[in-house]
Amino acid sequence: MAKRNKIALIGAGNIGGELAAIAARKQLGDVVLFDIPSKADFAKGKALDLMQNSAITGDDASITGTSDWADVAGADVMIITAGVPRKPGQSRDDLVGINLPIIRNVAENAKKHCPDAFTIVISNPLDVMVWAFQQWTGFDRKRVVGMAGVLDSARLQHFLAAEVGVSAKDVRAMVLGGHGDDMVAARGYCTINGVPVSQLIASERLDALEARTRGGGGEIVKLMGTSAYYAPATAAMAMAEAYLLDQKRLLAGAAYLDGQYGYKDMYLGVPVVIGGSGIERIVEIELSDAEKVALAKSAESVRGVVDVAKRLSAQQA
Question: Which terminus of the chain has a lower count of CB atoms within 10 Å, N or C?
Answer without folding.
Answer: N
